Amino acid sequence: MHWQTTRHRIDLSRPRVMGIVNVTPDSFSDGGRHATADSALAHCERLLRDGADILDIGGESTRPGTEPVPLEEELARVLPVVREAVRLGVPVSVDTYKPEVMRAVLDLGADIVNDIWALRRPGAARAVAAHPQCGVCLMHMHGEPASMQREPMAGDAVPQVAGFLRRATQELLALGVAADRIAWDPGIGFGKTVDQNFALLARQDELLHAGHPLLVGWSRKSSLGAVSGLPVGERMVPSVAAALLAVERGAHVVRVHDVRETAAALAVWSAVKSNESSKGRDAN
Q1: Which of 71, 140, 167, 246 is positioned for an S-S bond with 187, CB 3.0–4.6 A?
Q2: Torsion over CA of 238, 185, 158 and 230, rounded to 10 degrees?
Q3: How many angstroms separate the CA atoms of 252 and 117, rounded?
């Protein structure tokens, strides 16, 4: 499998690590640490040294209860970082739902639009469709960031998420976007209960049948705190465990804060898988 993006055809024969770059003062985990262009770019370079395959740059926090950031402010945060990050030789994703931001970063050479609204905002789908080959990640979200955890979704989340992503994909295909440009994200923590989030992990294979790459973001989420009892700043171990479990269940990309630790865990997993494959070949 591969993921076609603006400048890179990403080989997904091995799991890929997407490093989070929050150019924000208020993100739930690392808000303010990389809020200037220089500090954000330095963080990009550090994530690449740690083993990131993809960079995901965002200028607006989407933690529960947040209010939208004005367009001009988001552009001012994101554009200077993207302008330099596209020179680093790896795919650059931008976490945004605003079509104006999408067009601006794609004009700078960004590879992927990563949209928590799955291109449902007016003009967003057409902004992506107008580009010849950028990648896009469609995420499921119940409600909106300001209120999603006050009224989480009801019932079995897995078929609801799968159905939503199928419909969003069909709408994008109808606009002429090639299937190999589209990835799915189940939206862990976005309007879902703790049990629903873990059901999405336990039954993740049900999201793989459509054949689109699966991108999963468990890093430091509140559900990990709920089961581990750890505060957000101490959730590296459960975050790595969740990423590893997601990959074991078929995820192609894991979006993480703790890149070095996640990459190290995946190296161990890959060594085991390679050994299993070798034994299978020897047996034949």
Answers
A1: 140
A2: 20
A3: 21
**140 and 82 in contact (C-beta within 8 Å)?**
no
Neighbours of 232 (CB within 10 A): 16
The residue written with tokens 């295909």 in the block is 173
Pairing mode, strands 2-4 and 9-11: antiparallel
The Cβ of residue 76 has, within 10 Å, a number of other Cβ atoms equal to: 14
Q: Contact at 8 Å (CB) between 191 and 148?
A: yes
Look up residue 94 and give its two tokens: 């931008």
Name the token pair of 249. 């269940």
**221, exposed or middle or buried, with CB in 10 Å at 0-12, 13-18, 19+?**
buried
CA-to-CA distance for 16 and 26, rounded, in angstroms?
A: 27
- The catalytic position among 255, 260, 273, 279 is 255
**What pLDDT digit, counting tens, does each position of 201-247 carry?**
999 999 999 999 999 999 999 999 999 999 999 999 999 999 999 99
What distance in Å separates the CA atoms of residue 254 and residue 246, rounded to the nearest whole number? 8
3-state SS of 40-55?
A: HHHHHHHHHHHCCCEE
Which alpha helices (H) appear in 132-254, and where do they start and end? 157-174, 194-202, 222-228, 236-248
Which is catalytic among the residues 192, 220, 221, 235? 221
98 part of the active site: no
Q: Is 255 a catalytic residue?
A: yes
Cα gap 9→253, rounded to integer Å: 14
pTM over 0.90: yes
For tokens 């190296």, the residue is 267
